[in-house]
Specification:
By secondary structure, the chain is of the alpha/beta class. It has helices at 35-49, 69-86, 95-101, 144-152, 165-168, 189-201, 220-233; strands at residues 2-7, 13-19, 22-29, 59-65, 90-94, 108-117, 120-123, 126-128, 133-135, 140-143, 158-161, 177-178. Helix 1 packs across helix 2 (69-86) and helix 3 crosses helix 6 (189-201). The longest helix has 18 residues, at 69-86.
Length: 234
């Protein structure tokens, strides 16, 4: 099965083309949040390298969030458009789950962290047995101090990844951690493809209509509107 996978949920933009779990091509660009300009050319390049077109893809995969509100929307909208045009199934996967899969080869606790602003991170906890990952907690947005307390309860070292890596580690007071190579900290569309394939094989395929973004909390604009409405009532 040929899979085209995307991740544009943070600073990095990543596109991968796979044959089931075999990687054919992966492009990752860390040039800031310009995904609306870079994502489609990256897709075109990945497909063109193998003489493949969108109609040849059998499954579209995308990180559905959490992450940057704009980045999440761009990725999901792109896959919805591709799936609609080709009538091809698609699968959305948690950004945090895909990040955790980056470290699947290292047995133990894995904790992806994404900068959620407002002194919080998007996070979840997973465990790897060296070949697969198991989810231990649901995706959430919490403070680094809360996460530190939660991880300390497991009583074992943790591996971190995600764009919140550099802001999280200096704030840890109680839990131990194992450094993660830079290459494995950013989003990887290949990890998205593998996670999506497993969901697809479990009968969790979607279509362009059912694929939706996951934000975990309201956007800044929504929060400001709610605060404005609350103030007007007073």
């Amino acid at each position: 099965m040929k899979i085209l996978a995307l991740d544009s949920t943070a600073i990095a933009a990543s596109v991968a083309l796979t044959e089931n779990e075999s990687l054919l091509a992966e492009y990752t660009v860390l040039n800031g949040n310009t995904h609306s300009e870079t994502l489609l050319p990256m897709i075109k390049s990945a497909l063109g390298t193998f003489g493949t077109e969108a109609r040849d893809i059998e499954l579209f995969a995308v990180s559905e969030g959490p992450g940057s509100f704009t980045g999440v929307r761009i990725g999901v909208a792109t896959v919805k458009g591709l799936a609609f045009d080709s009538k091809t199934p698609c699968v959305g996967v948690s950004t945090l789950e895909a990040l955790a899969y980056n470290l699947v080869g290292s047995a133990g606790l894995i904790c992806p962290v994404m900068n959620a602003r407002r002194s919080q991170v998007y996070t979840a906890i997973f465990r790897s047995d060296g070949e697969s990952i198991t989810r231990l907690t649901e995706d959430c947005a919490i403070s680094i101090a809360e996460l530190d307390e939660l991880l300390a309860e497991y009583g074992e070292p943790v591996r971190f990844c995600g764009d919140g890596y550099d802001i999280t580690l200096p704030e840890l007071k109680k839990c131990e951690y194992i450094p993660t190579p830079v290459r494995l900290r950013s989003q990887s569309a290949y990890s998205v493809a593998v996670c999506a394939l497993r969901k697809y094989n479990d009968g969790k395929a979607q279509n362009d209509a059912s694929l939706v973004a996951t934000y975990l909390r309201p956007s800044q604009a929504e929060r400001e509107l709610a605060e404005k409405n609350k103030a007007s009532v007073k």
